[in-house]
Amino acid sequence: MVHLGLGAFARAHTAVFTENAMLATGSSDWGIVGVTQRSDTVARQLAPQDGLFTVAERGSGAAPLRVVCSIVEAISGRDHPEKVVDRIAAATTQVVTLTVTEKGYRIDPHTGSLNTADPQVHADLDGQPPQTAIGQIARGIQHRARTGAGPLTVVSCDNLPGNGELTGTLVRAFAAALPDAESGPLLAWLDANVTFPSTMVDRMVPATTDGDLAAVEHELGLRDEAAVVAEPFMQWVIEDNFAAGRPAWEEAGALFSNDVAAWEAAKLRLLNASHSMLAYLGLATGRETIADAVGEDSFRTACRLMLAEDALPTISLPQGLDGSTYCAQVLDRFANPALGHTTAKVGSDGSQKIGLRLLTTVRANLDAGREPTWAALAVAAWMHHVATTAGDGLNDPLAADLQAALPAERSAATVVPALLGVRSIFDAGLAANTTFTDLLTHWYRIIDTTGLDGLRKEITHG
Ligand code: CS2
């Protein structure tokens, strides 16, 4: 397997599921070539450790420390792009998995397809050794087509609806944008030999801190620069659409399902939506972690109401998922005091997340003639975060556009319409909807002028 995006999540999820599958079946046939994307840090940390790293579970029910050995090679994609293409093209590779986060897909928000105006996508199309995940996959597949290396399955593991179909669309858009002599054969081979199953992944994995590394060193008796911490819970729902072999992930507890879209929608609009809501409410009131934010009664209440009144009535749950039990479990998982998941981390890249997590719910309620009171609170808290984070402090790929849209004088009356004008996030219909605008202005004013006290009062009375 080749895994693109060797962050903490991949190590605590894909690598663990893959090792568990091998342990359960007694096979040692699989190994993961991990590829870092923008930064080479994890490749530098893993290489001298032969790919070995520790997973430290934190919270109630945590297993003992465990050293995972399913990663057999770690490559810096930035520095060795040809190697990445070679590994994807190798006849021994049967699966490519990816966790490159929402922004890593280089989607044009207006078309939903590949942003060919992105300078790196452009360079990859031009024939430079590819730096984007979609470029790496497309070039790897092109080599497979030329060498007859056999079919391949590409498995997206990012929090995006229909992530498999989306990845397929983007890879095809890349292929279609190549010169005719290249695109025809590539598209034909792709159609016959490559599948893109969708998946839903779930495990909370914060960024590893120096304190975590010191704690692992103390417990393990070894220094591990690539250790990761994670909650005990983990879940993977996978569409059974594989073109070639794969690890027996079902033996490791993964669920193969024809209903991945419903699982993903539920996760995005319940778990991720409330995660983002807590992050922005927490950031607005000086709370450093998600556990601190959900520990504030009024915020927990606001989340519960957002889930019960705004989100649950507007989604169809997959079979086997009980909505209220799931929501209660999610809030309990957020409360894990040992995890240290920061509001800053969850609140990063908001421009890429709020549309999928919150605006879907906002739209569904408005369409049904209901007021999305609580989802609007979360969006207003995001707006407050954007408007009060100075200069280049905003961790978001659209930071420059958002800064440019902001007015000099910042109040509910000026910030809300200004940010609603950012078309890559809010469509014109949503921006013109007075129910939504009024809710945003109401909540923004409370956050901005009365802070926590005002929020507490309004949430209890609301
Ligand atoms: C979080 C997710 O950082 C974020 O945006 O909401 O990474 C979340 O922890 C995972 O999706 C949980 O599976």
Helix-strand layout with pairing:
Layout: E1 2-4, H1 8-12, H2 14-25, E2 32-36, H3 41-46, E3 53-57, E4 66-68, E5 71-76, H4 81-89, E6 95-98, H5 119-125, H6 133-147, E7 152-156, H7 163-176, H8 180-193, E8 194-195, E9 199-202, H9 210-220, E10 228-230, E11 235-238, E12 255-256, H10 260-284, H11 290-295, H12 297-311, H13 323-334, H14 343-346, H15 350-367, H16 373-388, H17 399-405, H18 412-420, H19 428-432, H20 434-461
Parallel strand pairs: 1-2, 1-6, 2-5, 3-10, 6-7, 7-8, 11-12
Antiparallel strand pairs: 3-4, 9-11
Helix pairs in contact: 4-6, 6-7, 6-8, 10-12, 10-13, 10-15, 10-16, 12-13, 12-16, 12-20, 15-16, 16-20, 18-20
The structure holds D-mannonic acid (CS2).
Molecular shape: globular
Q: What does the average pLDDT come to?
A: 97
Radius of gyration: 22 Å
Q: Low-confidence spans: pLDDT under 50, at least 5 residues?
A: none
Number of helices: 20
| CATH topological fold name of the largest domain | Rossmann fold
CATH superfamily descriptor of the largest domain: NAD(P)-binding Rossmann-like Domain
How many strand elements? Answer: 12
- The CATH class of the largest domain, by name, is Alpha Beta
For the record, the CATH architecture of the largest domain stands as 3-Layer(aba) Sandwich
Secondary structural class = alpha/beta
Main sheet? 6 strands, parallel
How is the largest sheet built, in terms of strand order?
A: 5-2-1-6-7-8
Count of folded domains: 2
